[in-house]
Amino acid sequence: MTSAVTPPQIESLSAITLATSDMPRAVLFYEALGFPMKFGGPQESFTSFAFGASFLNLIVDTRAPVAWWGRVIVYVSDVDALYRQALAAGLKPSSEPADAPWGERYFHITDPDGHELSFARPLG
């Protein structure tokens, strides 16, 4: 009798790691958006923030940045409240909250190292 081998399955996202050339500036940005720090800090070369059941990590990298790498899309409980929080912290989102035809309310913001983030919530 032979047994079938089950291929490994993708289970969940553990973390997203983004490069930064300036850890203190990046930490201030993510803290201003409400990401809770779990490890590291402004003077460290690696910092980790809670990201739901996953993590958003920052790592110091002084190489030249890529022109555009993509976008991280984060679901939040209140898109408009987070937008107002970002503005109150002096951050400059690249778009105002809007309802998208694909059924999400969202806004975009770019971090100090050029990583684009989209904060969204499914509509209705």
Kindly describe this structure.
- The protein is of the alpha/beta class.
- The protein has one domain (15-62, 69-122): 2,3-Dihydroxybiphenyl 1,2-Dioxygenase, domain 1, CATH 3.10.180.
- Helices cover 16% and strands 35% of the residues.
- The protein contains 2 helices and 8 strands; from the N terminus they run E-H-E-E-E-E-H-E-E-E.
- The chain has helices at residues 23-32, 79-88, and strands at 15-20, 37-39, 46-51, 54-60, 71-75, 98-99, 104-110, 116-122.
- A 4-stranded mixed beta sheet has the order 1-4-3-2, with helices on one face. The protein has a 4-stranded mixed beta sheet with strand order 5-8-7-6, covered by helices on one side.
- A hairpin with a 5-residue loop joins strand 7 (104-110) and strand 8 (116-122).
- The N and C termini lie far apart (52 Å).
- 15% of the residues are buried.
Number of strands: 8
| Strand arrangement across the biggest beta sheet | 1-4-3-2
The residue-averaged pLDDT reads 89
* Helix share, percent: 10-25%
Any idea what the radius of gyration is?
17 Å
- Percentage of β-strand residues: 25-35%
